Amino acid sequence: MRVFCSVCLITVVLCCLPGPLAADDSAGIVTKVRGQVTARKTGDEKAAKLREGDALAVGQILQSAKGAAAQLVLTDDSVIHVLPGTTLQVSQYTFSADENRRSAVIKVIDGSARFVVYKKRSNDSRFAVISDHVRINARISDFFVMVSGKTTEVANVGPPLGIQNISQFTVGRVQLGTNQRSTIAEKAPPSQPSTITPEQRRKYLKDAEI
To answer: For residue 195, with 0-12 CB atoms within 10 Å meaning exposed, 13-18 middle and 19 or more buried, which class applies?
Structure first.
């Protein structure tokens, strides 16, 4: 309840923000920053330091330094917590309030991020989180993605969540219940779910605080 109340407060703030969010390439806004978090366009070497209130553009690559973190609120009200030492890209994003439809592909390149998707949208909507190893199709969800080397770990602290290998040639899909996690390696199906203990859950949530 505490998590969702915080998200609702963010949404109220977001709705009161001025025009830049209406830009065609806009995906959302940066609502919190701790430490050095930068953003750059694909192919650019120069990165700009992010500050609270900055717009988030589709295609930007975000990087958080060691000890740094950021909170992003997308225009469909989904929330992303970028944890320390993380590289993440909003690869694709569109949202139509009139049609209540979103289409998002977020890639965690390295490091860890939390995703809170708490508003149901149209049946043809999608909110996909990917890495080099996993694809997650989220609806109403609250989960962590942790990419390290040749594996990705998914820790689910919200409603049931389906995960599968990013490769269409790798057979196998796992349903993670609340407080369950799985590890996915290259060209391998997800491991069978294991339980997240109350202590582990508290640590996940604390690590995502900004």
So the answer is: exposed
Per the CB < 8 A criterion, the answer to whether 74 and 93 are in contact is: yes
What is the tens place of the pLDDT at every residue in 49-84?
999 999 999 999 999 999 999 999 999 999 999 999
Given a contact cutoff of 8 angstroms between Cβ atoms, the answer to whether 37 and 65 are in contact is yes
Write the CB contacts of 200 (distance below 8 Å, at least 6 apart in sequence). Answer: 155
Segment (H or E) for 199:
helix 198-207
Domains and CATH numbers, the chain: 2-207 (2.60.120.1440)
Cα-based distances in Å from 59 to 31, 160, 192: 19, 29, 33
